[in-house]
Amino acid sequence: MPAGRSLTIARVFLRYRLDTLLPSAERPLWIRLLWSPLRLLPQPKLSRGARLRRALEELGPIFVKFGQLLSTRPDLLPPDVVEELNHLQDNVAPFPSDQCTARIEAALEAPIDTLFAQFDRTPLASASVAQVHGAVLPDGESVVVKVLRPGIDKVIQQDLRLLAVIARWIRRYVPDGRRLRPVEVVEDYRHTIEGELDLVREAANATELKRNFSGSPLLYVPEVHWDYTRETVMVMERIDGIPVTDLEQLRAQNTNMQLLAERGVEIFFKQVFEHNFFHADMHPGNIFVSRQHPERPKYIAIDTAIVGSLSREDQYYLARNLLAMFRRDYRMVAELHVQSGWVRADTPINTFEAAIRAVCEPIFEKPLGEISFARVLISLFQTARRFDMAVQPQLVLLQKTLLNIEGLGRQLYPELDLWKTAHPFLERWMRDRIHPRTILGEIKRYGPEWLEKFPQLPQMVYSALDQSREMAPQLQAIGSALESTNRRGRSRYLRRAAAVLLAVGAAAVAAPQWLAALPPAGIAMAVAALVLVLWP
Ligand SMILES: Nc1ncnc2c1ncn2[C@@H]1O[C@H](COP(=O)(O)OP(=O)(O)OP(=O)(O)O)[C@@H](O)[C@H]1O
Questions:
Q1: Which tens digits make up the pLDDT trace of 482-525?
Q2: Which residue among 60, 146, 165, 408 has the highest number of C-beta atoms inside a 10 angstrom radius?
Q3: Angle at 81 between CA 79 and CA 85, to 5 degrees
């Protein structure tokens, strides 16, 4: 770990007393001793969330972006901290225009004057990873040029290494640190930010999203100019939309706000279930509304660096889970989690079902229009994590996107009832899955592969049978080994039980008053505990 950077982090950590943010349940003695002098340090008069926000801002853009990602994880952090992280400012000074043009010329191998009829040296926007300039192509088309910051990949790799070390420390040395899943969160961040370092990938995502919505009244995606696109430079059509957060402008042109909010939800479900390809960075800065047809408003999406998709099984289980949840069929929800493999097969269904009910019932007490859909999903995953559900990156992305969409929708139209839009969509999707047309589509899609494999089928069956015959002795050996382990295990338990009973007996003989002082209920409980501990 680079020493200078580590010292900076330590200084900021101490200045904002971030030690007080870590869960303070039983810390090992040596950590308590080591940290005790920290109590002498003054604590800034700021809330815990504000201290974390200031510290991240001081540590620079990569940490700011990390904080922004944390703000989309209300399943891990308390609400006051999430609220404060929502205000993180990604204010980064633009890099000099000479450097910018040099980078464009190097990537596109031509002088800037021949590439563009006009190039605005002052950027339209400047963020931590890239900056965006306006330009005009030789044929007169208005475009924007996105350029990666020079040397940004090195900075990111260095800061990612630091974050990974900090995450491992938290997991190892902070009690309850495991629950925060720091290592997974940093891995998630690595995935996100690395996706932003290759503009060809971003351009490919934009092209796919555009194809998926071609001819649709719901969403427009600007056209990529592939001739002008490389890993560090990307050129695309310039759009002229209203930022979705500019409610005043939207109202001024009489936008149908209810339809706009509902269309946001529709776009989300279409992407997740129909296209299986969703824009996963739907923060308001990346969404605009077309100025045309405000009575039938259409979205415009930019910044397609981060996208997500689900496996066919995940799609299916997610749809069924949502339907079962809103039907309050918690048994089904619990069973679906096991069937999908999200939680282990030996999860006690009854206990799991009761836990889900305890979390969901208070939420469903409210009228449907007031229920936060994203919250329901987050609470569900939170509960499932208590039952050892591993973090599924694709579901985390989905949960974050849904949170953004819902937040945005409610800002546009506070009475938005997400379920009203989502429910028919999911029901239709479930029905369509078994529709002959869909099955025919599947056959068409995978048919050639099956036909290809078909002549090998008899040989495959024969090999499988042959292999199982060859493996018979090994399987038998494993069986007997298990049997003898069981026997050994049983005798070990019996020996342990005898030792404990002997010890208790000896204590009773040596100090009978001790035994007499125990109330009968206490004795019964001790015996029950003993049985439980010793039960093989
Ligand atoms: N096609 C476009 N037409 C018009 N303006 C654009 C276009 N693409 C980007 N911009 C402007 O540039 C800003 C930054 O673009 P973009 O979000 O793609 O960059 P970024 O570096 O990924 O930013 P961030 O990381 O903050 O999301 C946008 O908010 C928008 O104002």
A1: 566 556 555 665 566 555 555 555 555 555 444 444 555 555 55
A2: 146
A3: 115
Q: State percent of the chain over pLDDT 70.
A: 76
**Which residue did the predictor score with more confidence, 473 or 312?**
312
pLDDT at 350 over 90: yes
- CA 156 to each of CA 159, 192, 197, 272, 466: distance values in angstroms, whole numbers, following the listed order: 5, 12, 9, 30, 53
Instruction: Report the pLDDT value the prediction gives residue 116, as an integer from 0 to 100.
Output: 97
pLDDT more than 90, % of the chain: 34
Q: What angle do CA 158, 164, 167 make, to 5 degrees?
A: 145
The pick from 302, 304, 306, 307 for probing ligand 1's pocket by mutation, whose C-beta has the most ligand atoms within 8 angstroms, reads 302
Residue 119 — pLDDT band, cuts 50, 70, 90?
A: very high
Q: Report which DSSP code applies to 239.
A: P
User: Residues with Cβ within 6 A of ligand 1?
Assistant: 90, 124-125, 127, 129-130, 132, 144, 146, 222, 236, 238-239, 285-286, 302-303
Beta strands in 211-264 (DSSP E): 219-220, 233-237, 242-243
Q: What are the extents of the domains in the chain?
A: 1-90, 92-238, 247-434, 447-475, 489-536
- Cα(263) to centroid(ligand 1), Å: 22
Here the tokens at position 358 are 């305890």
Asked which of 102-111, 183-192, 241-250, 383-392 is least confident by mean pLDDT, the reply is 383-392
Confirm if 7 and 40 have CB atoms less than 8 A apart: no
Share in percent of the chain as helix, strand, coil (round to 5): 65, 5, 30
301: which strand partners? 287
* Lookup: tokens for 2: 């680079």
d(CA 303, CA 394): 19
The structure tokens listed for 359 are 């979390």
User: Which long-range contacts (C-beta less than 8 Å, at least 24 apart) are formed by 171-174?
Assistant: 173/28, 173/31, 174/22, 174/23, 174/27
Give the integer Cα–Cα distance in Å for 170 and 147: 35
Distance 149 CA to ligand 1 centre (A): 14
Amino acid of residue 247 = L
User: So which residues are the catalytic ones?
Assistant: 281
pTM exceeding the 0.80 threshold for the entire prediction: no
Reported as a single tens digit per residue, the pLDDT across 268-290 is 999 999 999 999 888 888 999 99
Does residue 173 have a pLDDT over 60? yes
Instruction: Count other Cβ atoms within 10 Å, centred on residue 131.
Output: 21
Do residues 308 and 404 lie in contact, with contact meaning Cβ atoms separated by under 8 Å? Answer: no
